[in-house]
């Protein structure tokens, strides 16, 4: 666990605390595993609108626990699943932070989160504020598993890891794009800058991920999908606004000596690894543009060679990608395939099976102990997209590693 020094998260949204209500539905325990379904605070969208929000202090199981899965989807006011062709779920990320107990009342009343909060991040190596989340997907959420096999879990709420005077809390970083009536659904979901009502001085005042002036060649991505901006609509289209929420289900166990802790790493195919003396710097960019090259069908391939300071046994792996993905593969230093994550595309109209949209990514569950990543091993992440122009493409690989195995599972 590492502290994030900057009050900034991936979507670069203005951090706000939204008003509204949240509720939860507790279910009966299944064997030793507990389960609960929660619904986040609501937010409003209208045709073509971007909603990029940070929802603080979301409901989360209490106590010293081990999380087994975390799944989410977008729902309307009636609790019905919202299809991607109406409102596109670009991403949701669950981020952990510690809040100073003595400042809680002040933060609640003033909405000023600049004081009293320390953000903590996963075990991945991306620098600073980038990709700090522990769970997070996008349009593929409904069809991507996050289940961790017994006896493995991700540990949270350990009082020895929480600074004195602080309380462990969670937030959602979420971005959705309402594409009802959109002039170009595909263009809006890719955050094409020329389809959004950007301010006239946008390129003059916007800084990129490296805090440099945004290039005029930047054609689309997170920097153009700001909260409350409007994507171009078909002439004459009008539609109602509505309130949406993120419904999420968490499965967990009470932590005891029978649980095996997992480390969670996010690897980014845009990671421009470099060295500074004896230090390794992971210069992740989080997104990239895919140019169309010629007229062939060969996919666009992007690679990153990523050294792992600490290794372990691979227990589960999957990827977060966007529509147009062909696959994502993680290789060991010797070229062996550690995991390949493949897409599932929708064929219908119902939520979770939207025609032409990415609705799921496969995961890997190797036999525990059969796939080991050595300390210092250099992994290669390779992501493949269709040979079509695309902005704001992402290529994240998620891996859960066990540093030790229980004796019963050792090979």
UniProtKB/TrEMBL annotation:
Residues 1-19 form the signal peptide. This is Stress up-regulated Nod 19 protein. Keywords: Signal. InterPro entries: Stress_up-reg_Nod19 (IPR011692). PANTHER family: STRESS UP-REGULATED NOD 19 PROTEIN, STRESS UP-REGULATED NOD 19-RELATED.
